[in-house]
């Protein structure tokens, strides 16, 4: 009995769920009561939910179009071993900046033509992410590099 009494004592936060909202307010979404701009938090990164793939350019002879081969690993249906699956996509390259062998990232976009729905974007190089390699000198000279004192 205590569960039912606790449920009855709970107050619903929304007047819609409580049933006290009139239908006239629901039919007018532009009313000043319901029109409040939503504030997006500034500390969150932008949402990038669009599909993106990485691949290698295999053909760049067409104008503003590159053919990109994407390799993925998928389990074999019978043997359950992961095997490489390759698929070629046509991607839009507006500046003709990519050559055969370049690694690109494919971003999903609106259909540009019958076969092109991706835009080719350069992949950030892995060298830029690596830390600077030190020269190996610690600043302390080795014994062989120290000036030797003459003994008399």
Main features:
28% strand; single chain; extended; 5 strands; 152 residues; OB fold (Dihydrolipoamide Acetyltransferase, E2P); alpha+beta; five-stranded mixed barrel
Helix content range:
10-25%
- Main β sheet profile: 5 strands, mixed, barrel
Q: Outline, from the CA principal axes? A: extended
Q: Over all CA atoms, what is the radius of gyration? A: 31 Å
Cα-to-Cα separation, first versus last residue: 104 Å
Which architecture of the domain at 52-125 would the CATH scheme give at its second level? Beta Barrel
Classified by CATH, the class of the domain at 52-125 is Mainly Beta
User: Would you identify the regions where 5 or more consecutive residues have pLDDT less than 50?
Assistant: none
Helix count, per DSSP? 4
CATH T-level topology of the domain at 52-125: OB fold (Dihydrolipoamide Acetyltransferase, E2P)
Q: Could you give the count of β-strands?
A: 5
Oligomeric status: single chain
Protein name: Small ribosomal subunit protein uS17c
Subcellular location: Plastid, Chloroplast
GO molecular function, one term: rRNA binding
Main location: plastid
